[in-house]
Design a protein that fits this description.
globular, 6-stranded mixed beta sheet, alpha+beta, 2 helices
Length: 115
């Protein structure tokens, strides 16, 4: 489905019949919301794609067409800021693996895997 959120289109794709613990489902929802908000607020994204798949465990991927950033930049700059830190901590607290791939001018992709 496609829904308007702020000034971006959000496309959501969820594989059917994914069974996860409630705390992981909640964490994934919060991470998706934070990644989407960051893409629109900081990256000026016009389109954000949220995908949940279950190839081996469960995987959440949020990618956007925004301005991108340097994930290695210090917190508080336009890089690995506090939103990324909280998303990483939320995922790792539940045993998830968190990654972010981005570069200036190339959008961003946030991915979380739970096994």
């Amino acid at each position: 489905s496609v829904a308007a959120r702020g000034r971006a289109d959000v496309e959501v794709s969820v594989a059917s019949a994914i069974a996860v613990r409630p705390e992981i489902r909640e964490a994934m929802g919060r991470i998706a919301a934070e990644a989407t908000a960051n893409a629109v607020r900081h990256g000026g994204a016009e389109c954000v794609r949220i995908e949940v798949t279950a190839p081996d465990g469960v995987r959440l991927r949020v990618d956007d067409d925004g301005s991108g950033f340097d994930p290695k930049a210090p917190a508080g700059g336009k890089g690995g800021g506090f939103g990324l830190i909280s998303m990483r901590e939320r995922a790792e607290r539940l045993g998830g693996e968190f990654s972010v791939v981005s570069r200036p001018g190339a959008g961003a992709a946030v991915e979380v895997r739970f096994h």
